[in-house]
Amino acid sequence: MSQYHLDERDEVRRAYLQKGPFQPRNHTFPQTSMYGNMRRFNDAWFGEYNNWLEYSIKEDLMMQKQCVKRCEDLMMQKQSIQTALDKQSEQAKADYRTRLTASVDVARLLLVEGLPFWGHDESEHSKRKGIFRSILKFHGEKNESVGSVILKNAPGNCIMYSLDIQKDIANACSRETVDAILEEIGDGYFSVLADESRDVSCKQQMAIVLRFVDKMGFVMERLVSLVHVTSTTALSLKEEIYSVLAKLSLSPSRIRGQGYDGASNMRGHINGLRSLILQENPSAHYVHCFAHQLQLTLVAVANGHPHIKGFLELVNLTLNVIGGSYKRRDEYRIRQSEKVEEALRMGELLTGKGLNQELGLQRSSNTRWGSHFKTFVNLVVMFAPIVDVLDALATDTESDDNVRGQAILDGIQTYDFVFLLHLMKLVLGITNPLSQALQRRDQDIVNALSLLNTSKKQLQRTRDHGWDPLIDDIKSFCLKHDIEIPNMDDFAPLRARGKSKQRVSSVTNEHYYRVDVFYSILDMQMQELNSRFTEESTDLLLGLACLSPDDSFSSFDKDKILRMARLYPHDFDELAIEDLGFELDIYIDNLRDDERFSNLNGLGELSTRMIKTKKYLSFPHVHLLLKLALILPVSTATVERVFSSMKYIKNNLRNRISDEFLNDTVITYFEDDLFESVSNDDILHRFQNMKSRRGQLD
């Protein structure tokens, strides 16, 4: 404490006391020889002395915080010396509560909406003092009881709208939200999902999301911290994650899963973050983000197949040319509107709410999941307006891009382009439902693997029986847009670079399109799926699949489940494995005979049903295995959504926002459903106890 400035010590003490004692439950405590016996700390003592007992992992010491019990008076403002010397009337306390509540109400609104708090100039003579003060003023004008005690009517030393006050309120809101998350986690296990992204001010931010099963049996993924990291080495990231967990009084020994993207510093087998955590906690199993792996299959096909690579380059060039000019964008919108009106007159489209909306030309990206599919769908639907815009560009002799426009027009009005466009739309249309499902917060890994197998079967079915329907669609499209259709019995022209187009190959057009393109791309897609998704063959995933309740637990296999349990040595020793074996025999017969467990779909429904029927009390070991299965991460989609929220909040106009305030605003904005459940009283008391305040609540 002596290292802090005298003016800061009270605030530091309060911050330390507000965190509460550090109690790493379920931590593997080291043994010490005492009087000939091996003794260790018992985490059951935390439940008996939860208000003051703490344990230091670093020092391996039990801290009997009797001083904390005595310091509780420090947190109670009404017992402080300052309060005793500065007694306030009941009216003054009521006015202070009204004033503070008004500021909290305004802050909550801005946090939920992700809006900025203050303006560039908040001086008294400024006409634009920022959204916070503007809404506070509006609130006072509409509510006389509030307006009489805020802003100009507030005491000069207790105005409750300064920048520091606004930051403290936001911090109190954030910490109460995180406390609500910790309440959901309880004493249970969790998985860590993390990733890094650069913000608008070129700072590297790491989002830390915890995946867990709440007390009602639902799978949850919650943001607990957004940290500015100055180094992205695996060791630095691990230290940051452990530091965040320590602040939340969560022991790293409770980690039962890790989910990262494909970066080597994250998933490296030797010195990656996954390996560093696994060395200390072998039960923290790593699962590579499924959504990221699925996107990598497309990238591999695009880079590995020459036809697809050239096709994607032409698609991106088309979108860049049309989207690179506001004039061409406007012309595209006009052409699109005309096509929709014409289709409505011809009865080709239906009218209704939400139908026939304007379609943008979204650029595809190798790092944005599902973007290629949306691009291809829009190209098929809006092909005619695109051709019209390019045709107008090609005939505009005053434009510098007319030659390029003509080249693109010649490229997309070919059978080759149309064939690849429809083929890639078909292939990605099969995997797109899987991509969308993988991005759900409550998705479990068994269901994800089931969806993956379904996609593989659909790809194989398309390879076997999808040629004729595809050709029919392409023919219809070509006839509609006046694109020449080659004779499939003619010999295909040589398409190698440097070869004359007049030269022909020894294969027919049908052989080329069917074997060299259709079969080749589908085979490559299926091969990439098989090579990248290798988790199916592990004992962990085989055991998880056997817990599935689908088809009256038809996949149940006791031996595989027991092998899976052995992968969690901290949770299932040999004695627990024996108990689990006997429990599984009774469990499967009991649940198969119970009508309440019929027609269940997935591990998530099984988990909630066991809680609802209290079966988890009868089968604790099976229920623990079920929770371990559910908290295994499927994808880092939630982390990516955090970065979307971060970029929405910290934008070009708010590029100087501090790291702590960014963390507070992103947490409350992203976890808005939980934040809205936090009461104002909790926020008021948290705010009041953060520092010594002039105003008194009680």
UniProtKB/TrEMBL annotation:
Residues 618-674 form the HAT C-terminal dimerisation domain. Residues 66-272 form the DUF4371 domain. One of its GO terms (molecular function) is protein dimerization activity. Pfam families: Dimer_Tnp_hAT, DUF4371. InterPro entries: AtLOH3-like (IPR055298), DUF4371 (IPR025398), HATC_C_dom (IPR008906), RNaseH-like_sf (IPR012337). This is HAT C-terminal dimerisation domain-containing protein.
